[in-house]
Amino acid sequence: MFNGQIENGFYSLISDKTKNFKGREWLFSEIKSWLADPNCLRYFLITGKAGTGKSAISARLWQISEGTETDEDLERTQRIVT
Predict the structure, then answer these.
(1) What is the DSSP-derived secondary structure letter of residue 23?
(2) 39 contacts: CB under 8 Å, gap ≥ 6
């Protein structure tokens, strides 16, 4: 039961963070380029001041990786990388 509560809270947090999500195309373009380059470092650091959307971006990336949201450019890159 406890694990279910954590899971529900996680999905609720993801939903809250991505509510009305828009913009940031430039960042997703950078992530796409990073994923496509096999010579890049294997980490991508997102920094910014409080309230600038770091958590929302992370939540959206999680949704894309889980297939609950789509980003055509990132999906094409993922197919190339894997």
Answers:
(1) -
(2) none
